[in-house]
Amino acid sequence: MKEIDFLLEVNSLGVITYDDEQAAINNIREWVLTPMNDIYGMPSWGNQFHLFRHYPANVILEMQIEAHIVIKLPIDIPSVVITGIKVVAQGIDDIVVTIGTPQGAITQKLAEL
Q1: What digits encode the pLDDT tens for the residues 14-27?
Q2: Is the terminal CB of the chain with fewer CB neighbours within 10 Å at N or C?
């Protein structure tokens, strides 16, 4: 599998591309940063983190986001194998998501819910 960087980042060779394992990580990072209805032609693809916008930042919120990832991510990216998830609400607007896969882990701060 070969994928281009979802943000279309470039280097001296042109648009950055990823092979196999890094392509899977790129797809997961794209899913975490893409709200549902943002991709033309694929309205159901992406996360629904906005549903948790008004929830207090606590352990319950962390569990709900983890459950959302476990349910929705494999639907949108069927090839993904989740080996671990950790969500940490460090403050009102500071939530960090870590998703582990056999290819590696990604850690991403959610900009806003």
Answers
A1: 888 877 778 889 89
A2: N
